[in-house]
From TrEMBL:
Residues 22-130 form the Activator of Hsp90 ATPase homologue 1/2-like C-terminal domain. It comes from Gymnodinialimonas phycosphaerae. Signal peptide: none annotated. It holds the Pfam family AHSA1. This is SRPBCC domain-containing protein. It comes from the Bacteria. Belongs to the AHA1 family. SUPFAM superfamilies: Bet v1-like.
Length: 166
């Protein structure tokens, strides 16, 4: 298994998460941009399952990912709009948290996300920088386990890649 994701605070509003994968860049790009593959490894909170994964991969297009809790039927997710799609190399998007049907709760302001894919030996390194609208939002999300959740999803992707290579 690759080394776990490394996370760095950047300035007062951003976080950078970097992780290498034991697969070529084109395979990892597809895992991040093909909705049928992404839905298999992008985990939500424990006890929740992804029930919506839409992707329109072009500038001005977007995505909507949603997870549902079987026990409570609550939903949570993300919606984003791509401003840059450089196939195999880079994605830039603005993302908002989708709170589902919760009365009285407004979605927080958008983050700006930049994901860069580069060759790393025989594999691929993905570096994602998330810029939050204010420091408190970044610190709250990090404190809620962002980095552990990202790594759990990446480990799920690692297992998928190993099964596919076997």
């Amino acid at each position: 298994m690759p080394t776990p994701a490394q996370a760095y605070l950047v300035g007062d509003r951003s976080i950078r998460i970097a992780r290498s994968f034991d697969a070529p860049r084109h395979v990892i790009w597809q895992a991040f941009t093909d909705r049928t593959i992404l839905a298999q490894w992008l985990l939500g909170p424990p006890g929740w399952a992804m029930d919506l994964c839409e992707i329109a991969l072009q500038p001005g297009g977007g995505y909507h990912w949603r997870w549902r809790c079987a026990e409570t039927d609550q939903t949570v997710g993300f919606k984003g709009t791509y401003s840059v799609v450089e196939p195999g190399l880079r994605l830039i998007d603005k993302q908002v948290f989708d709170l589902g049907a919760r009365d009285g709760l407004a979605a927080p302001a958008a983050t700006k996300n930049v994901a860069v894919f580069r060759d790393d030996g025989a594999g691929c390194r993905v570096t994602t920088t998330i810029r939050y609208p204010y420091a408190g939002m970044r610190d709250h999300v990090v404190g809620q386990g962002l980095c552990d959740g990202v790594e759990a999803s990446y480990q799920c992707l690692d297992r998928m890649l190993m099964r596919a290579a076997a």
